[in-house]
Structures are given as C-alpha cells and as structure tokens.
Fold this protein.
Amino acid sequence: MPTVAQLLAQADLPESPSCALDAELLLAHVLQKPRSFLRTWPEHSLPPSQLELFNALMARRRAGEPIAYLLGEQGFWSLDLQVNNTTLIPRPDTERLVELALELGPQGRARVLDLGTGTGAVALALACERPLWDVIATDLVPAAVALADSNRKRLRLNNVHIMTSDWFFALDTEPFDLIVSNPPYISADDPHLLRGDVRYEPASALVSGADGLDAICHIVQQAPAFLKRDSWLLLEHGWQQANAVVALLEDRGFHQTRSWQDLAGQQRISGGQWRG
C-alpha cells in the first residue's frame, strides 16, 4: 500500500495553483487527521478503502471541483462552516463586509439583517462578535436556508434567525439598525463564469442580469423601508462596480455614501446611511 509521503509526492493537479496544499488537505480529510500528521507519519500506509476515497477526491479536484466542496467545510472569520454546492463558498474578501458592519453598526442591542445569507457566513460572524445583536438572515433557496441553520445550530448561536425569503418579501415591518448583503453581482455574459471554482457554484448566487446590478438595484430601492433613521446599508459588489453602486445609493437618497477596499486593494464594498 502507498505511504503518505508517496501519495503526496505523486500528487498531480495541473489546474490548481495550490496543488501541494490541496493534496495535503484531501489526504488529511481522508485520514481524519490534522495536516501535521502527514509530516509526523510520512511512512503511514493507507488501507484500500482510504486509498480509493483519496483517489476519487483527487480526480474530482483535478476536474476543477472546489476544494471546499470536497472537504464539505470552509473557514470564514473565526468560524468553521459547513458548505455544499447549494451555496457560494465563503471568500476571505467578504470578511471585510463583516469588519465594516462591526465598525458602523451599533455597539449595543441592535436588529441586523443579512440578505442572501448562503452558508450564513456573514450573519453568523456578526452574531458571534455581537451577542446583543438580533440577526435576521434570509435566502431564497430553501437548501441554503437549511445549510445556514445547520451551521447556526452547530455553532450554538441563538441570536440568529434564518428564514426563506425573496430579499425583503417575507419580512415584517419592524425596521433594522443595519442591513448587509453579499448579493449576486456578476453579469450574465462574464467569461469568469466558465473558469475556476465558480463553474461549480450555483448561478443563482452569482449572476444578476446583464450588468450584474439587478439584485443590488432591488436592495437599494427597497432597503429604506426597512432601515431605522441613521442606519447603514452595506453591499459587497464586483471590483468594477463601485461607482455604479454609489450612484444608485445617492439617487435613492442615502447619505455619506462611499466605497471600501478589499484585501487586494479593490473597491468591493459600498454603503450609505439612511436618514429618512
């Protein structure tokens, strides 16, 4: 039977920019051990059942399937989240949305809304950092709602309520102290949809009309009816959409509109304050 060292030396993932890391993550997952085990016990041999599983996972990764879907989990903020192909994979850049929400949102008790929650990443990170916040999270896809609620239960975050809703449709009229969203914002003809991990992610969570702004337009138009005076709306968007999103916010009557950079220095989050 091949050893850990032999399997890692033979790992071949030509399309992956992180071949060695991917192979280590998949092998540790199969062995149900931490990655440190691979270096501590390089001569460990895999039994046939584990070897078969490892080879199958490597084949799927070689075909381009995201590593997070293969592992069934993804780290975000300080949380380990379950993921599957009913939702987007949480990205590190979205942690900037969490940072800004914590900075601009109330420090005490507050009612906060996360639209299009997916895995629940943003809502759960906010609830974890602000135990006094009552966080409502919505998603149109029932399977995504089930996944987010599973993550909520596993993390024991009782200050989050996750519900099925087409954006604001199923919400009551009680206003919020803060609204955040990482909505779909890719144009329907964007060539990036045919490359990398997004090929395996649900199109409904990625694509939003001809210019990618349909969902953002809807949120900007509807949000004031659900915001308290002086509360913020924060939106993640594409790296070339900042000016367009700020213009939408200003046209709707938001104040203090601006954009913020992500980890790569791109303007990827925009927001404004509603004064009524």
User: Anything to note?
Assistant: The chain has two domains: 4-64, 73-274. DSSP finds ten helices and nine strands in the chain.
